[in-house]
């Protein structure tokens, strides 16, 4: 399990951000909240610890935290579905991971909740997440929970429990409920994002990432292009402007 060092020499980036947030400014607290939420996302943590994004996987996660924050600067009207689109796209492009378990949507909703609270000067949730992060020992705890669910993902988790399922139930005596619908049945220390469902991963860790000649985005090595992930506004016949999520096209 990973631990967070409190020494100034090797201080964890999240700890540094926590210190910077001590001034209670809403924007700084919001950035800290984004960082804590994304660093508590098991899908992203597993991809980073497995180096599915290459040797710079950890840096890509840090870059993603900043990219989500910049998204609200460039497009203040950004909503949870926009964040979900970005997360799914980045996980696919940068880590070769297909996220299809709705956990990206949950992350987006939590980020929006933190945004609304910090804008009103309420930093209670961010403070609580910070304390939970320290208590759980960082990202390592969430990865362990993810792997447990991933291994059991093929089991539908029905309540019938007949036949050969009896042996599985004996092994899962410590669990309060069967592993089924992750959003309803699986919990881990009251941390919603510390739980995921099984997913159809297709990582390609050995093959180098390939980009077209006209691809400008370089993740951690350069500026992040908002248009890469979010569609441009569409003007209808009546002159009204609307933004259509890529996922809803």
UniProtKB/TrEMBL annotation:
<comment type="similarity">
    <text>Belongs to the TSR2 family.</text>
</comment>
<dbReference type="InterPro" id="IPR019398">
    <property type="entry name" value="Pre-rRNA_process_TSR2"/>
</dbReference>
<protein>
    <submittedName>
        <fullName>Pre-rRNA processing protein TSR2</fullName>
    </submittedName>
</protein>
<dbReference type="Pfam" id="PF10273">
    <property type="entry name" value="WGG"/>
</dbReference>
<feature type="compositionally biased region" description="Polar residues">
    <location>
        <begin position="1"/>
        <end position="14"/>
    </location>
</feature>
<keyword id="KW-0698">rRNA processing</keyword>
<feature type="region of interest" description="Disordered">
    <location>
        <begin position="1"/>
        <end position="26"/>
    </location>
</feature>
<feature type="region of interest" description="Disordered">
    <location>
        <begin position="150"/>
        <end position="231"/>
    </location>
</feature>
<feature type="compositionally biased region" description="Acidic residues">
    <location>
        <begin position="152"/>
        <end position="190"/>
    </location>
</feature>
<feature type="compositionally biased region" description="Basic and acidic residues">
    <location>
        <begin position="207"/>
        <end position="229"/>
    </location>
</feature>
<dbReference type="GO" id="GO:0006364">
    <property type="term" value="P:rRNA processing"/>
</dbReference>
């Amino acid at each position: 399990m990973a631990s967070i060092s409190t020494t100034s020499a090797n201080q964890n980036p999240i700890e540094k951000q926590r210190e910077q947030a001590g001034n209670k400014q809403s924007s700084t607290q919001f950035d800290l909240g984004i960082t804590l939420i994304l660093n508590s996302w098991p899908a992203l943590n597993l991809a980073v610890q497995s180096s599915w994004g290459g040797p710079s996987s950890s840096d890509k996660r840090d870059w993603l935290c900043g990219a989500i924050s910049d998204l609200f600067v460039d497009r203040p009207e950004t909503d949870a579905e926009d964040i979900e689109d970005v997360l799914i796209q980045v996980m696919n492009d940068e880590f070769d991971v297909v996220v299809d378990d709705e956990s990206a949507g949950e992350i987006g909703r939590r980020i929006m909740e933190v945004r609304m609270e910090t804008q009103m000067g309420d930093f209670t949730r961010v403070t609580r997440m910070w304390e939970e992060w320290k208590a759980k020992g960082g990202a390592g705890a969430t990865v362990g929970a993810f792997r447990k669910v991933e291994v059991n993902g093929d089991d539908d988790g029905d309540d019938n429990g007949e036949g050969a399922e009896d042996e599985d139930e004996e092994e899962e005596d410590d669990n309060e409920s069967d592993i089924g619908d992750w959003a309803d049945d699986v919990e881990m220390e009251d941390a919603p994002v510390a739980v995921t469902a099984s997913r159809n991963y297709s990582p390609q860790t050995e093959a180098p990432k390939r980009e077209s000649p006209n691809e400008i985005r370089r993740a951690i090595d350069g500026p992040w292009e908002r248009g890469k992930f979010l569609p441009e506004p569409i003007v209808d016949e009546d002159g009204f402007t609307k933004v259509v999520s890529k996922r809803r096209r």
